[in-house]
Write a structure and sequence with these properties.
Elements: H1 21-35, H2 38-44, E1 54-56, H3 63-69, E2 85-87, H4 88-97, H5 122-125, E3 147-148, E4 155-156, H6 163-166, H7 176-188, H8 192-215, H9 219-222, E5 231-232, E6 240-241, H10 243-252, H11 269-273, H12 281-288, E7 299-300, H13 325-328, E8 334-337, E9 343-350, E10 353-357, H14 360-385, E11 388-395, E12 398-403, E13 407-417, E14 423-425, E15 430-432, E16 440-445, E17 452-461, E18 466-474
Parallel strand pairs: 11-18
Antiparallel strand pairs: 1-2, 3-4, 5-6, 7-10, 8-9, 9-10, 11-12, 12-16, 13-14, 13-15, 13-17, 17-18
Length: 476
Amino acid sequence: MKRLIVVALLAASANAYAWEDASTHAGLTEAAALGSHLHARLKALGYERGLYEPLTIPPEDASSLVAALRQYAPTGGFVPDGRGRQYAIAWLVGGAVIADGPFIANHFYDVWTKGGWIEPSRGVLHGLLTWMANVELFEAQDSWRDLRDETTGVPLPERGVPAPDWVVASNNPLAVDGFLDQYAKAIRGSSPGERSRAMAGALVAAGAIAHVLEDMGSPSHVRGDARAHLDKLGTGDADLGSRFERIAAVAYGRVGVPGPERVITRPTLRAFFTNDQHDGLADVTAMRWFSAYTLPGTVRIGTGGRTVSPPLVKPQPAPPTRLNLMAASQPQGTTLDDGHGVCLARYRVDRGMLSFWLDDDCMLAEVGAILPEVSSYTAGVIDFLFRGELDVSASGGRIAAKAKGALGAGTLELLSEDARGVRSPLGGARPVAASADGAALGDAQLPDDSVRAIALFTGVDAAGEKIVAVGVVTVK
């Protein structure tokens, strides 16, 4: 459990350094969970209420985690009660809400350079007051440089770990290894209380992974545009962040965030972020949308024709070489859309100079197109994390487990559960070789008092991705 606890997390604030946590991230994760197969999966694992199964992490077992969640209003629906108890979906959403913490710079990925966050120039940083205020770095995190703004003495990251690497990083307390560890404990745990606590921990980690993927739907996160996260948003000196992401929060809140239009599937975790087919969420976002400081540059249109080639910060999206320069000569300019009627940018011609900009209405249209896509990818990654299944049968006093889908090498554990809910191992973990779909993995004798039989595989899938696969059956 310790690996799943961030020692000190960023307090709730008005700053928008990513999709805003208690509104957009909470809404995206909740909508994606409802559109995924997680409810049915939890029920199949023995959590009879699925997403609405009450799960408890005793506060004394995870004081920092509970304290981080309690920085938010209980009305948010993801703050555990005094016993550390709340529904499964609330733990998932809570993990998404707290994932920024001191790790926010690890939630960026430049599709073209393959790098993460790079701090903006010192001129841009001058006057930045408190984006890391009151944050003590997680004790295992060593990828941050102790760079301080001359004005404030606040530590600032020089570089971040690229987001697809961060979700599998060994020094990330909410990475996939932490998820898989807690998920396996939620199956093999002896008592119902142990399993409840571990499943809540697994859901927190899954929510945090979902959060990092969701950030790939924000154009500035995937176009190397750290500067966009330091804009002044309000009247307070510390109200800094992304105007694009603030608009999403103001316009959609939490409950208005649209759900998935479909559930995206990918063969690996990284492929949800980026892949050679360029259909990871970071790829799609970066190539389709501009961000505040990666718009085409200003260019003189000349007098020899109507084709223009403004300088581009990133190769895509590229405006057409023939623009409506007559409409652009109006004082309000005109709109460059994406071919489907969604605003990409505004442009105008003034004294022979063509320039581009984003206004609030344009960004609002973009948000409306982007959020359903982000929900779709998030639903897919939730299903991916919980994807592993085994075929389990119990007859004649024996349990037998078979592969459901091809598996790589790993270990198999067989367990029985009695009427009190206590689970007991049936022998030790046994190694299993790579197996085809339907291949027998192992069997064992069941105790007479068994009411459930459980099989647990930990290893890799056919693509070499780490996996926990589970099968549960009622003993008749």
